[in-house]
Amino acid sequence: MMKNYYIAISLLISAIVVSCTDSVEKYDNWPEWKTQDPVTVAGEEMTETYYTNYVGKKRQLTQDAEVDFTGFEALEFALQPQFWEFKSDTKARFKGETGEYDLIYDATNELLYVEQTDKKFPDALYLIGANLGHAGAGKVISATWDSMHATPDNGMTCRRVSDKVFEISLYLGENFAFKLFKHHGWGTHEEIEIWAEDLTLDNPTLVQGTEDFVPGPLFQPGIYNLKIDMNANTFSMQPQNGQSADINFAVNGKEMGIMPGVASCLGVALELKTGDVLTFENFGDISEMIQPDFFENATEDQAAFRGMAGTYNLYYDLGNRLIYVENSQSDYSDALWTCGSGYGHPAAERVTVHGWQFNTGDSYQCVKVDEGVFETTLFLDNDFHLKFFKKRGDWGTGIGTQTLDPLPANLLDKHYQVDNLSSIGNGHFTGDLIPGKDFTPGVYRLRIDMNKGVIAAVNKMNEDDIKSLEFKVNGQLMQRSETPDFLEVELELTQGQEVAFEGFSYLQYMLQPEFFEWADGQYKFRAVSGTYRISYRSDRDFIYVERTDKTSYPDAMWLTGNGFGHPKTDGNVWEYLSVDNWGFATPGQYLCCAKTGEGIFETTFYFHAFWGAVSFYLAKDNWNRVFNSSEVEIVSLDGSFGRANGYEADGGNKENFGATKNNIDKQYGVYRLKWDMNTNTCTFTRL
Fold this sequence. Notes:
Strand content: 35-45%
Number of helices: 2
Shape: elongated
Number of strands: 60
Structural class: mainly beta
Signal peptide: 1-19
Number of domains: 3
Keywords: Signal
Distance between the termini: 106 Å
């Protein structure tokens, strides 16, 4: 048995040796490899260098003459259709005018380009852009605008068909953009560039634009033939490989088309009333495209309208497969409009807006659900910013978190922006709605309730919790003041006592530091004991304090003037400052100084303009000054604040306080003033 095993192994080894020996002896019998024929046009090889990495040849070509080609695997696709009529695998008829041309070969993509870059309009026309390519490539070759024209596909030559009439065939991809040029290179619009708005576009569903030529709503990537007639100023674009430009979308039997001002979508105008059932043709499943605020009971091709009766435009964004509804003439009190960034159509579940624009698809109409109550459903991303406007396109009608409180507070928040003139660290509330600390991206149904003064994420909270916020100080509810936009409460306060605030989210941006200090995790009252009114200006989120039991000097001191503001403002919002408005009508137009000790008064304010000035008075509505600026010793470490720079040439204004002469560059900032009436000294500290 073992003997047979060894015999078998020996035979196997012999077979392997013979096999290997045979293969070595037959190496010279391998088949010949086919070599690539050189690329030639009319018998000439491509031997000259173009654009650094391309080869080519300058050739004299005759119109309608047949030209021989070698070395092209697929000649039909290598040629530009505007210049060549394909005849066979080795022949093509030249369609261009007789003349000398540069023939440039792209070996990587096996494409041939025809150029005459020395010619100018009216003898030539060129196309430069992005997301386009040679017609034979069937794909994008040039993905970006090439400012150096470093490749033949960016700066392609159009064929002149007749006097001032040109054509070109090319591949256009998604998001293509191009311009036409009267010479081979950049130039000004008036002299060189031809924009989309300069020509009448024969099919705006395929191509549109103002400056760049860009896709229309029915555009599909593919090969297109472009014809430019500069005599008639017309532009024609026709698909060449089966793309359909004739898909019909209809709503209730009415066909959609391009509507004025919204070229990026198909649209249709309809008279609608609540409960109307709309039928959509050729859309696919519209339940995945619609805005739920306007529609309910949606099926694949039908939905019931739930908006107010009126004339509405329905728009279909084919690229994103989204449907928008709006009545652009509606304004408050029948509608509100969104504007902002970082949000989108709820069906997309991603950001679709372009940021702070009132265009269709960027600004959504909020549906009125009751008097003073509106709703809109949006996808909100991590960095969204949002405001609401009473009139579309009118920036002066905006409302936001300066007058509406976000609910729930952990998901939605107010935006505080630090962006100031003096690097003091202050900022201001912008009114934008932004993400709260526990926010996660998703679809939110927002209710804007003007009656309750809230913006509520209805689908993220209980209905019973959607109510006006209450603001309390030491447990006492603040009430509406006779002064618009103010809430107020009057309290007995003791110096050093803890003061509890309820309902406020941003006390650090609201309080006057001369009255309150943060210590041991609580706010403590700094002024002497007495009766005080605490006023909350809700549209600006400022809190002011003034004494009400003893209102005259030496128990109180009052400031008014112009060019000053609450100590927590940054000066960027001009309306937040008291400008040319001396008086005692509303808190902020005046300040009550905090008496912190016997003969000691303190106040803090933002000071803006070098021509601004303030003075200190014996009582509210009493125009008798406690003292003039010339009657006290002024201590200012940097010398920027003291006797106001008035008309007196040397010493400054004798009565008012403000930015001193020659310190205009130091005019902006927050100043802390401490009066020591015992020593007749006023100390100014620039914070």
